[in-house]
C-alpha cells in the first residue's frame, strides 16, 4: 500500500513538472515580430497596422504576432533593419536599393541583410509645368527654371535620374531650385518656376491646389528614354496619371513611379516571412480598408519595381504563385 502511494505521488510530481515545463515550451513557439512603419500621420503606419491585424486574424494559432512601430522615413527604416532593431520595414523601393548597394552620401556601407518581401503601392513621379512655359517633354526642361525637390530628398534623386535618361543634368537647367513641395507650388503659381518635380501620390493636395491657381501640364515620362531609365534603375515602374486627376488635364499621361514596399531582415525565418505574405494576399479586403492608397494592391503586382534580392520566404511564396521560377 505504501509503495502504491509513493507511486501515485511520483506520477503527480512528474505531471506537475511536465505542466510547469509546458508553459516555457509553448511560449518558445510564440514569435513576436516588429514592422518599422514610418510616421503615424503617413500611409506606411496604416499599412503596418493592417498587416498586424491580418497576422492576428490568420496566424495567432501559429504563435506569430506582428507589432507596428512608428519610426522615421525610408532611410531610417533601412538603417533599423541593418542594425537589427526591427524585423520588417516599409520603405520606398529606390531607398531600399540605395541601402542594399550602399549609395555614397546616404548609407555608410551596404545593408545586405535588407531583403525584399513585396512591393505595395506606387508613389508617382509627377513633373508639373506651367502651360505658358511651353514644356511638353523632358527635353524641353533644358534652359528652364525647375524645382528638383528639397535637399537630401528622394525627389532630387528621381529628378537627377530622369534628366540623365534624356541626356541632361541639373547644369542644363537655367536654375535648379531645391524646394519643398509646398514651396514649389508657390513658386509655380507666381511664375518664379517653369516646372517642378513631385514624387507624391496621385491627386496630392499640393498639385491640386497649383492646378486650381495656374494653368499647368503634366509632363510625360515615356518612350525609349523611359525604358532606358527603368533598365538602369529597376526600382522604377510604369504608371499613368489618369485624365481629370487635375484641373484642365483631360488625357492620361504616362510617367514612372517608385514603389512603397515591405522588406525583411535576412535573419527572420523563411517560414515566418512566408506565413505573413501568404496571410496578406489571402485577406486583401482587410488591407485595402486601411487607406485609399491601398485599393490597387494585388499579388500579381507584388514584384513590380522590386530592386533588391527577395527574402527566401517571399521567393518561396511567389514561386508557388508562378510569378518567378
Write structural notes for this entry:
Strands 1, 2, 3, 4, 5, 6, 7, 8, 9 and 10 form a 10-stranded mixed beta sheet that branches. This protein starts with a helix and ends in a 5-residue tail after the last helix. It is of the alpha/beta class and 325 residues long. Helix 2 (44-59) links the parallel strand 1 and strand 2 (64-69). The chain contains 11 helices and 10 strands. 40% of the residues lie in helices and 21% in strands. It has helices at residues 2-29, 44-59, 74-83, 93-101, 154-165, 181-189, 205-213, 224-232, 270-282, 284-288, 312-320; strands spanning 31-36, 64-69, 88-92, 114-130, 145-147, 175-177, 195-200, 216-219, 237-241, 253-265. The chain has 2 domains: 30-122 and 259-320, 3-Layer(aba) Sandwich (D-Maltodextrin-Binding Protein, domain 2); 126-258, D-Maltodextrin-Binding Protein, domain 2, CATH 3.40.190. Helix 5 (154-165) crosses helix 8 (224-232).
Amino acid at each position: 500500500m505504501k509503495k502504491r502511494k509513493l507511486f501515485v505521488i511520483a506520477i503527480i510530481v512528474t505531471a506537475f513538472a511536465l505542466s510547469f515545463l509546458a508553459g516555457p515550451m509553448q511560449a518558445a513557439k510564440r514569435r513576436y515580430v516588429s514592422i518599422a512603419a514610418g510616421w503615424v500621420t503617413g500611409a506606411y503606419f496604416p499599412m503596418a497596422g493592417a498587416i498586424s491585424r491580418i497576422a492576428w486574424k490568420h496566424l495567432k494559432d501559429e504563435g506569430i504576432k506582428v507589432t507596428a512601430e512608428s519610426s522615421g522615413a525610408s532611410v531610417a527604416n533601412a538603417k533599423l533593419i541593418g542594425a537589427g532593431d526591427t524585423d520588417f520595414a516599409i520603405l520606398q523601393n529606390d531607398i531600399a536599393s540605395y541601402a542594399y548597394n550602399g549609395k555614397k552620401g546616404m548609407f555608410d556601407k551596404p545593408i545586405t541583410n535588407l531583403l525584399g518581401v513585396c512591393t505595395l503601392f506606387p508613389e508617382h513621379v509627377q513633373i508639373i509645368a506651367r502651360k505658358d512655359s511651353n514644356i511638353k517633354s523632358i527635353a524641353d526642361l533644358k534652359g528652364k527654371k525647375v524645382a528638383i525637390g528639397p535637399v537630401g530628398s528622394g525627389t532630387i534623386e528621381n529628378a537627377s535620374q530622369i534628366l540623365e535618361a534624356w541626356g541632361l543634368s541639373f547644369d542644363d537647367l537655367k536654375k535648379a531650385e531645391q524646394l519643398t513641395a509646398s514651396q514649389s507650388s508657390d513658386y509655380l503659381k507666381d511664375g518664379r518656376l517653369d516646372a517642378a518635380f513631385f514624387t507624391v501620390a496621385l491627386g496630392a493636395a499640393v498639385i491640386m491646389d497649383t492646378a486650381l491657381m495656374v494653368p499647368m501640364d503634366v509632363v510625360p515620362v515615356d518612350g525609349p528614354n523611359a525604358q532606358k531609365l527603368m533598365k538602369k534603375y529597376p526600382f522604377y515602374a510604369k504608371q499613368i496619371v489618369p485624365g481629370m486627376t487635375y484641373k484642365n488635364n483631360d488625357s492620361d499621361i504616362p510617367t514612372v513611379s517608385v514603389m512603397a514596399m515591405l522588406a525583411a531582415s535576412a535573419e527572420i525565418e523563411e517560414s515566418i516571412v512566408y506565413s505573413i505574405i501568404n496571410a496578406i494576399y489571402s485577406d486583401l479586403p482587410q488591407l485595402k480598408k486601411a487607406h485609399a492608397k491601398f485599393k490597387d494592391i494585388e499579388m500579381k503586382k507584388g514584384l513590380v519595381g522590386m530592386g533588391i534580392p527577395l527574402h527566401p520566404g517571399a521567393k518561396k511564396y511567389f514561386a508557388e504563385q508562378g510569378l518567378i521560377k
